[in-house]
Amino acid sequence: MTAGTGAAATARTTLLDAGVRAALRAAGAAARKGLGDPALAELVQIRASQLNHCAFCLDMHLTVAREVGVSERKLDLLEAWEEAGDVFDERERAALALTEAVTVPTASGFVPDAVYAAAAARFDEPRLAHLVGLINVVNSWNRLMVGRRIPAGSTRW
């Protein structure tokens, strides 16, 4: 639904340059591979998509998350991960905090040092770089889809 109108969302345009699509797909694949944890990659992409209100990406990443074995409990509680007790381990919590900090910058525009330090304590430098890259790629996809109003489940985008 489109906010406030009650009407089903329709795409403003389905045109996306093939080069842009290929570049983002390649960047996402490289980041996921370097992170080395498909379940965590999906949690990160879902959380960013929740924050960005991207129904298309939520629909897609929730499906993939289930395929790679993310539990329904984690998916159900992801939006409230900070209050979910031990549902998420410390590594997941650090990645989710970093996802939120990169996706919704503070007033200063920077990721808080404590958030970055918590992630750096749980990921080696290459994996942390891939995690930051993945967060940025999913944010780019979210903005491309939200900006063009691509609805969940769309096959034309």
TrEMBL record:
**Highest taxon of the lineage:** Bacteria
InterPro entries reported in the protein's UniProt record:
AhpD-like (IPR029032), AhpD_core (IPR004675), CMD-like (IPR003779)
Q: Which residues form the Carboxymuconolactone decarboxylase-like domain?
A: 23-100
Q: Which Pfam families match?
A: CMD
Q: Name one GO molecular function term.
A: peroxiredoxin activity
Q: Which residues cross the membrane?
A: none
Q: Which PANTHER family match?
A: 4-CARBOXYMUCONOLACTONE DECARBOXYLASE FAMILY PROTEIN (AFU_ORTHOLOGUE AFUA_6G11590) (PTHR34846), CYTOPLASMIC PROTEIN (PTHR34846:SF10)
Protein name per its UniProtKB record: Alkylhydroperoxidase
Organism, by scientific name, is: Streptomyces mangrovisoli
